[in-house]
Amino acid sequence: MSNQINQAVSKVFNQLADALETGHIEPRIKIGLTIDGSELGLDVMRQAAETIKQNNLFDVVLIGSDVEWARDFEHVSTTDCQKDAYEMMEELLHDGKIDGCVTLHYNFPIGVATVGRVITPAFGREMIIATTTGTASTQRNEAMLLNAINGVAVAKTLGHKDPTVGILNVDGAKTVERALVSLKENGYELNFGESARADGGIVLRGNDLLTGTCDVVVCDSLTGNVLMKLFSAYNSGGQYEVAGFGYGPGVGLNYRDNICIISRASGAPVIANALTYAYELAKGKIADVSKEEYDKALSAQLNAIRESLQVKTETSEKVIAPEKEIVTAEIGGIDVMELEEAVQALWKRNIYAESGMGCTGPVLLVNEKNEAVAGELLKTEKYL
């Protein structure tokens, strides 16, 4: 964190030098902070705001109830009600009076999800978790596809020109991997990372989270939310989040507000980091970067790929299994959510198959004599 602050301070001095030379001074960035609603009380908000004020990189605008210490800051008073604070925050953002805001428990529209930022414990590396709250789509696999774009947009806004991307080994991971590979083959620039485990691949294990193998980890929001809580509060007993940058900004197609989320259990260090996160996103113009990434993805047939991820309509057709055979050949790489469908797809071709779970994930079992043809059929049916 100190290195980031030093870099930001250096930028400020460079801007001052440019201002002396050109006579033009850019207005200081202002980041709002809604101060009501924390389970830890108002004092954590005060500590975080004072930390930012001492660093003097940008200005904090407090939004919320009247408290004595708020007089030391620009303060927009509201009743002690989060609804009023949210409305005021949105008004200030839309009027351009603040460039971003940090708040608690905000309800984003469907299509928008937040991109978290943590410090991994093994090597102290920063890692983006896409996503942590909200939902990019009501369809899980489609949401994870969009989460990858959201994570890349945030990483690029923070200065990672070519961030590495991995997919957490959760339900849907293999399906999302195929979708992202298709997007890349269609022209969208995507730099896949690789698991540090012996078998590699872009599907990440728990070890990869601890070491920060990739810059961006793609997962569903519910899993991402749990990860954020573990990374933030694992050394405090869970009641006080002490590490990381909060649950991050809401990002999505055509969404432009820089609203970053913290938890009601976020402590002063996390709130201060979240304010700095919002500042860096404002500085890097997250809305513009996000639009650029989505424009590129749309040009790479994003909508067609999204359509392919829609949940298939169930049919009443009953598939009867062929005569049972000894199955010793394993076919891996099929998503666990599609495993039974893949079995029945082979049954329709009169190939006996069974589903199973290997040490590295789900597998489909066939007789050795059918392995090659079964593999080709599964590729044709888009299960591999």
Key attributes of the depicted protein:
384 residues, alpha/beta, Isopropylmalate Dehydrogenase, Alpha-Beta Plaits, 12-stranded mixed β-sheet, 3-stranded antiparallel β-sheet, 12 helices, 19% strand, elongated, Glycine reductase
Set down the secondary structure blueprint:
Blueprint: H1 2-22, E1 30-34, H2 43-55, E2 59-64, E3 74-77, H3 82-94, E4 100-104, E5 112-119, E6 126-135, H4 140-157, E7 164-168, H5 173-185, E8 191-192, E9 203-204, H6 206-211, E10 216-218, H7 221-233, E11 248-251, E12 259-262, H8 268-284, H9 286-299, H10 302-308, E13 329-332, H11 339-348, E14 353-358, E15 361-366, H12 371-380
Parallel strand pairs: 1-2, 1-4, 2-3, 4-12, 6-10, 7-8, 7-9, 7-10
Antiparallel strand pairs: 5-6, 5-11, 11-12, 13-15, 14-15
Helix pairs in contact: 2-8, 4-5, 4-9
Organism: Enterococcus alishanensis
Protein name: Glycine reductase
InterPro entries: FA_synthesis (IPR003664), Gly_reductase_pC_asu (IPR012116)
Task: Please characterize this protein's 3D structure.
- The protein has helices at 2-22, 43-55, 82-94, 140-157, 173-185, 206-211, 221-233, 268-284, 286-299, 302-308, 339-348, 371-380; strands at residues 30-34, 59-64, 74-77, 100-104, 112-119, 126-135, 164-168, 191-192, 203-204, 216-218, 248-251, 259-262, 329-332, 353-358, 361-366.
- It is α/β, with parallel strands linked by helices and 384 residues long.
- The protein folds into 2 domains: 27-308, Isopropylmalate Dehydrogenase (3-Layer(aba) Sandwich); 329-380, 2-Layer Sandwich (Alpha-Beta Plaits).
- α2 crosses α8 and α4 (140-157) packs across α9 (286-299).
- The model has no long low-confidence stretch (mean pLDDT 90).
